Amino acid sequence: MQKIYITGANGFIGHNLVEYLSKKYEIYALLRNGTLPSFNLKKNITIVYGDLLNKDSLTKSIPQDCVVIHLAANPYDPILSYKVNVGGTRNLVEASLKKHIKHFINISSQSTKIRKKGVYANTKIESDKIVESSGLNYTILKPSLVYGPGNKGLFSKIKAAISLIPFVPIFGSGKTLFNPLHVDDLNILIEKIINDKSAFNKTYDIGSKNKISYNTFYLLTLRYLKKNAKLVHIPVFVGVFMGKIMTKFMKTPIFYVDNVLGSTQESNCNPKEILTKYKFSPLKIKDGMEKIFKPKGINTAIVGLGKMSLIHTPILETFKEVNIVALIDPVPVMYPSLKSLGTDANYYSSFKKAIKKENINAVFVLSPNFTHFDILKTALDNNIHVFSEKPLTINPSQIEYLSKIETKSIIRVGYTLIFNRVFLHLKKIIENKELGNIESFKATFYHSEVLKEKKGWMFTKNLSGGGVLMNPGPHLFSLINLLFGKPNKVIGKI
């Protein structure tokens, strides 16, 4: 299997590329020490830790005879940009020469072609020159604006901006033309180049066939985001000044000088050569937007942003068939934490409000027991599938009511222990009568508890259901049902 080494693997383009190429290639994803991967881990993805400023770490981490795809860059800090974009590229090239790599693909920028350049553009020009004079088999790609889904993409930044201010700032007239490229199309083109010797020692512009203006792009984005924010044009000199201030005082600026310069000058991106070479037609902007904002799959809402949401949400994010579209809780305290973990979904204070705004196919109910019934009733009435934390309801009459609702919904309850390999093996032992004929049994469930005053809804019977419905109690009954079948009668005594 071809080995591919990717720098900047945690960035927007990087993590998309890692996941795409890992289907066919053995990936070595370079991350900085102390960082966690933003992509889904698979058996043919190896995380390697290193630093572009440390040549030895690169030499150790680059596999022999691989393909290197260089994405890592610093776009705003004047000093760090030179160190990373120029010095880092030089270190990577020298390490690549030692490892006799097959192909060095350098992801450059359209900003290298504009008239008035900022720090980032100038350092990328020097980076390109280092690659061109390296003696390696190289290809330099200069993408136009790359867009796509996810919390690291442009759209999440727009959403964040208009949640703070009721408008979208556009530098200059907004009439500058560019060739927006969906990240999936960039991935496809990079893959075509990987083993193509005819692409050696070439530089290509990459973008879609059709140019659009920033005004058109942002208006289209707002339409798909279902936001009524206005476009406000900011003079270029004001944008440059603000960019300098943000770069000086913010660790991660909202925007920087190169953003302003790049969006107000034509780069004359011409992707015709590479698109003709590979007979490839990138998505038109409207099709790309449709792919992002109306994805195929299961649109899922999560109700209850407590401790369990921090467990379920990241797991759901690993399934490409699942689109988390709504995070719901009366109190939005945990919403920023879930956003920081990579969940790009809208916040709502109630499930009923969410279904009015979002096309929801399924809901995860992680809220307190006493809230389940109303949420379940709403879900079943709207043919929305349900996964509910146990117990499903706080009394039998609620289940009886729900069972009479005509619906296409499927309900599953979070009895996770019935999938545990230990209990499944025990079930086989019992079925094979390896323990003989079992006449009676005693079931006990031990559960860790914090030794403090017991208060709150969990310890209030009419809110939690009380007794065996509290905390882990239902798990014991689910295991009894798994191992011995449904009881004919349940008798309780306190």
TrEMBL record:
It comes from the Bacteria. Residues 423-492 form the GFO/IDH/MocA-like oxidoreductase domain. Pfam families: Epimerase, GFO_IDH_MocA, GFO_IDH_MocA_C3. It comes from candidate division WWE3 bacterium RBG_19FT_COMBO_34_6. Residues 298-409 form the Gfo/Idh/MocA-like oxidoreductase N-terminal domain. One of its GO terms (molecular function) is nucleotide binding. InterPro entries: Epimerase_deHydtase, Gfo/Idh/MocA-like_OxRdtase_N, Gfo/Idh/MocA_Oxidoreductase, GFO_IDH_MocA-like_dom, NAD(P)-bd_dom_sf. Residues 4-207 form the NAD-dependent epimerase/dehydratase domain. This is NAD-dependent epimerase/dehydratase domain-containing protein.
